[in-house]
Amino acid sequence: MLPTTSSSSSISQSSSNQFVFVSLLIFLWYSSNIGVLLLNKFLLSSYGFRFPIFLTMCHMSASGILSYISIVFLKVVPFQKIKSRSQFLRIATLSVVFCGSVVGGNISLRFLPVSFNQAIGATTPFFTALFAYMMTFKREAWITYGALVPVVTGVVIASGGEPSFQLYGFIMCISATAARAFKSVLQGILLSSEGEKLNSMNLLLYMSPMAVVFLLPTALLMEPDVLDATIALGLKHRFMWLLLSVNSTMAYAANLTNFLVTKHTSALTLQVLGNAKGAVAVVISILIFRNPVTPLGIAGYSLTVMGVIAYGEAKRRYK
């Protein structure tokens, strides 16, 4: 009987350790995702660092360096090589689309409060379903599409009740959300064959330097005073470089923890956590930035989140 008791104790200890590990991963995932969002908002609209393209380039640079360290030295995931010229071109295409989504999101944060930004971002499933149908003719059950009605309706209501509504910021946020959905569908199409599939961490490893090559000349062209202004801010605020470094590291950590949480739980768990994350980010941003909210705006955002939850559940049941 003693070995059985010892074995049960060992299993219990292992389960406890696994629970603690997964809980820590989820905490880090929440912290990095919400942290980079709030720091982006702070830098772009409160701190005077009005260069969203250059900020995105900093994120991509950090992601490239840290991805290389994580994969090659820390062996977080096995290293996967690019096997063909066509695969390289496909990854480059994804990199450009990904850049567009991140830059658009960062630009929108200059003009919109985080709460409204998150409400618009919650419509990602709508654009994903739209692009999936347009590009692959993949149809979902009608009840699944029906769940998207409150997703869009909620954003329309939230827009009408948003005191800080700004058209350009709204357009950029919608564009970023659509680009993010387009990238996920495109990734499924371009890297669908078994020989060309890459896990998300290796994909980030290759996409990041490609993004920097694209973003550097774009930043110098569209943000010509970025270097002088950044140096001036660095001299004026001694924590400027630390903030940029922490912000860029968090951007990579958000991708890393996203991968690890999915690996150690499930994609469904990540979806549920993502729905809750949006609500948490909204509450924290309102407390920090004190942006005004209205009952109509809260009702619209709540309707959107409920629609996203219903869409996820319908999609799971009617596969």
UniProtKB/TrEMBL annotation:
Question: Which UniProt keywords are listed?
Answer: Membrane, Transmembrane, Transmembrane helix
Q: Which residues form the Sugar phosphate transporter domain?
A: 22-311
Q: Where in the cell is it found?
A: Membrane
Please list the GO terms describing molecular function: antiporter activity
Query: Where do the TM regions start and end?
Result: 20-39, 51-76, 88-109, 115-135, 142-159, 165-182, 203-221, 241-261, 268-289, 295-314
The record's InterPro entries line, in alphabetical order, gives: EmrE-like, Sugar_P_trans_dom, TPT_transporter
SUPFAM superfamilies with a match to the protein in the record: Multidrug resistance efflux transporter EmrE
Q: Would the keyword Transmembrane turn up in this protein's UniProt record?
A: yes
Entry-linked Pfam families? TPT (PF03151)
Its GO biological process terms?
transmembrane transport
Q: In what way does this protein cross or attach to the membrane?
A: Multi-pass membrane protein
Q: Name one GO cellular component term.
A: membrane
Q: Does the keyword Hydrolase apply?
A: no
Q: What is this protein called?
A: Sugar phosphate transporter domain-containing protein
> What organism, scientifically named, is this protein from?
Lactuca sativa
State the taxonomy lineage: Eukaryota, Viridiplantae, Streptophyta, Embryophyta, Tracheophyta
